Amino acid sequence: MRSIVLKLALPVFVVGLAACGSSNNTTTNTRTAAAATPSAAAGSTNGADAICATYNTQINAVRPTPAADPSTADAAGLPGIATWIDQVLIMAMQEQQALGAAPDAGSLNGPFANVITTFHQAGIAAKGTDAAAFQTAWASFIAAQKTFFTAATAGNFPNCAK
């Protein structure tokens, strides 16, 4: 999930969306929520953290990343950001389903649902031509993501807190 923030704040790097940035230039290989089981991420000690690790890797691989920094994008940069958000949103929604089924993810579900909602709203705003509306929606997404990271840190889910 952290990767979403990083990728979304992309220009600052082409940052790592899902798990804190990857510079992998491959296209994303979409997985189903069923494939994101605790065994999907080797070395993880709980289901929710393994799910986050799996999706962080996938989201970080989404290319191309936006050419414009979402936090400062103007109307000309919005179409590319909208396309990128659409791709990431599909995976984030799959991650949300997988987390909803993980017995240890209870404390994460509410905050992550808010991340998905605000990210989707930013995507809708990016499809318009009003950069100010997008900036407002993007700021809401960033705030929701910070709340999610706080919950993930408190719950000892290091891969979810990225």
Task: Give a written overview of the molecule.
This is Lipoprotein. This protein is an all-alpha fold and about 160 residues long. It has one domain. The chain is about 55% helix and about 0% strand. The protein has helices at about 1-10, 45-60, 80-100, 105-125, 130-155. It starts with a helix and ends in an 8-residue tail after the last helix.
The geometry reads as elongated
The tally of domains stands at 1
Element-by-element helix/strand order: HHHHH
Structural class estimated from helices and strands: mainly alpha
Count of alpha/pi helices: 5
What do the pLDDT scores average to? 77
Count the E strands: 0
β-strand percent reads: under 5%
Helical content, roughly? 55-70%
The main pleated sheet reads as: none
- The end-to-end span amounts to 6 Å
Evaluate the radius of gyration.
15 Å
Report the uncertain regions: 1-45
What is the topological layout?
Layout: H1 2-8, H2 47-60, H3 78-101, H4 106-126, H5 131-154
Helix pairs in contact: 1-2, 2-3, 3-4, 4-5
Question: Main attributes?
Answer:
single chain; 162 residues; mainly alpha; 5 helices; elongated; disordered N terminus; signal; Lipoprotein
Care to give the gist of this entry?
This protein is mostly helical and 162 residues long. 56% of the residues lie in helices and 0% in strands.
